[in-house]
Amino acid sequence: MTDRSEGRPAGAGAPARRAAPRGGRRRGSLFGFGLGDWLLAAFLVPTAILMLMPFVWMVSTSLKSAGAVFEYPPTFIPDPFRWDNYTRLFQVLPFARFFLNSVFVAGTVTLLGVTTSAMAAYAFARLRFPGRDALFLGYLGTLMIPAQVVIIPNFILLRTVGWIDTYQALILPAAFSAFGTFLLRQYFLTIPNELEDAAVVDGATHWQIFTRVILPLSGPALSALAIFTFLFNWNSFLYPLVVTSSVRMSTLTVGLNTLQGQYNTAWTLLMAGSVLALLPVLTVFMFAQRYFIKGITMTGIGGR
């Protein structure tokens, strides 16, 4: 088709667009970063340094001698390095017992908590029964009750059944979570109903739909809840302190607290124990960071 007035192809008079250069620097940028990127980095880098300072100080203190902890001006590099603080920690305290107790309790609570939350979330998200929404709102309302309020009632109940200073007291009350149920319910609602309908047509039961359709598609949310549950129970202090009374049943947080006395604190040993207690947390987060972020993102868009 030609332009009759000028005898040239239509559109020939339009100015040609320049192709955007690929892989080139943006105009007005430095090293490929714009002004906004540099301003964001100028804010985030000092913030990250401030966030890391307590951890650096903790590691530094764990390698100092007792008299060097309160030296002024403070130093971050110990002189000399006291690696024996870590060996002394195992001599002063049954640290291995505390560590194994925390691993067992946090791991078991995580397994039971994710299992019970997933089953309850499936019931609230997929099943139809009278009073479902009212029951869910009531269950969700328990999140507004501070955990400190129910410690004494829980202690009385556990003492009545004879579970004080046992693994049952440390594990079973924490194995049911309204937060976990809410988190997984929101994720289950994002799964298309057509998948469940197809499974029903094939003759699948609710249990088969739950285990073979819903759970395999909910890996990110389950991973996020597992990380939340493990970290919360690993760092829990007040509840294990109340329901345990012997050194044999103490968790890591309760055991390290014995290094703090009324008039004296073994800061070097306390920091050494804190460093060792931090290692499992960092390991879990490093290996599951991708699932953690994806799970939080996905569960945040399914509120309906």
What does this entry look like structurally?
- Helix 10 packs antiparallel against helix 13.
- Among the domains are: 44-82, no CATH class; 95-243 and 281-299, MetI-like (MetI-like fold), CATH 1.10.3720.10.
- The protein has helices at residues 35-62, 84-92, 95-126, 132-141, 151-161, 167-171, 178-188, 193-201, 206-214, 219-235, 238-243, 252-257, 267-299; strands spanning 2-3, 8-9.
- It has a two-stranded antiparallel sheet.
- The chain is globular, with a radius of gyration of 28 Å.
- It has 304 residues and is mainly α.
- The chain contains 13 helices and 2 strands.
- The mean pLDDT is 83.
Low-confidence stretches: none
Mean pLDDT, to the nearest integer, reads 83
Radius of gyration: 28 Å
Q: In DSSP terms, counting alpha (H) and pi (I) runs of 4 or more, how many helices?
A: 13
Percent in helix? 55-70%
State the secondary-structure class. Answer: mainly alpha
> CATH class of the domain at 95-243 and 281-299, anyone?
Mainly Alpha
Which CATH architecture of the domain at 95-243 and 281-299 is right? Orthogonal Bundle
Q: What is the global morphology?
A: globular
Essential attributes:
304 residues, mainly alpha, MetI-like fold, two-stranded antiparallel ribbon, 13 helices, 1% strand
Secondary structure layout plus pairing:
Blueprint: E1 2-3, E2 8-9, H1 35-62, H2 84-92, H3 95-126, H4 132-141, H5 151-161, H6 167-171, H7 178-188, H8 193-201, H9 206-214, H10 219-235, H11 238-243, H12 252-257, H13 267-299
Antiparallel strand pairs: 1-2
Could you give a short description of this structure?
The chain has 304 residues and is mostly helical. It has 13 helices and two strands. The protein has helices spanning 35-62, 84-92, 95-126, 132-141, 151-161, 167-171, 178-188, 193-201, 206-214, 219-235, 238-243, 252-257, 267-299; strands spanning 2-3, 8-9.
